[in-house]
Amino acid sequence: MKKHALLFGLLSAATLNCTQVNAGSYANNGAFIEASDSWYSAVNQHDVKMVGGYGFTNGAGVMLTNAYNIGKGDNIHQGYNELEGWYPLPSTTGFLSFMPGALINANDLGSGLAGYINMNMMFSPTFNVSTRYRYNHRNSRTINTVDEYNYNDSHQFIVYFNLQASEKLALVLEPNYFIHLNQFRAANNSKYHWEVNAAARYRIDENWMPFVELGWLDRHTLNQQEQVKIKLGVRYFF
């Protein structure tokens, strides 16, 4: 159970953080804070996240996340802390661009890190598609499915479909595919699993942006149910 909770907690952190979504007439650069609550159906638990970050005018950024697992609302404990940064590479075309990034995280079971590279294709001023390859690494060895100590690492492949539906409304569809290494398995008891997230952000004004996200996180073997995520949050730009 701890392994499964750790896996989903750490790997879901990228959702909605660094997707390249147009902002209409509002700027996304500058300092921001964010608060969100996620409910996971198969385990009937909530995660609360507090995020602070800064976006630079060239598209680079840095972000710190503190996550807390509150169970069914009656048991609060620290989930994980994560620091992430990204920097876009110079582009000679308005259509294709690349952006590397990296993050480090830690919880009571140890620490981890990840590196990724984004390829963004801007098909129009209101629609773009980004593909991302990310490698997730745990810094300490734990027991795998064949009772050996090894690193619980994984490959992660993501596609972001970003649509600026109106001046204030942005929509994101984000399928993720994971390949688990070193004889470790996901919560679906497989070496492979999918996560599919769909999100809507509404930019009320230059400061406030509430959002909602629905996700399917594959089947969970804890009680043989599909793991569904419902996330509600708000971001404030300074």
From TrEMBL:
Annotated coiled-coil positions are: none
GO MF annotation terms: porin activity
Q: Which InterPro entries match?
A: Bact_OM_Channel_sf, Oligogalacturonate-sp_porin
Superkingdom field: Bacteria
GO CC annotations on file: cell outer membrane; pore complex
Record protein name field: Oligogalacturonate-specific porin protein KdgM
Main subcellular location: membrane
- Location of the protein in the cell: Cell outer membrane
Annotated GO biological process: monoatomic ion transport; oligosaccharide transport
Q: Which organism is it from?
A: Biostraticola tofi
Which residue positions does the secretion signal occupy? 1-23
The record lists the lineage as: Bacteria, Pseudomonadati, Pseudomonadota, Gammaproteobacteria, Enterobacterales
UniProt KW keywords: Cell outer membrane, Ion transport, Membrane, Porin, Signal, Sugar transport, Transmembrane, Transmembrane beta strand, Transport
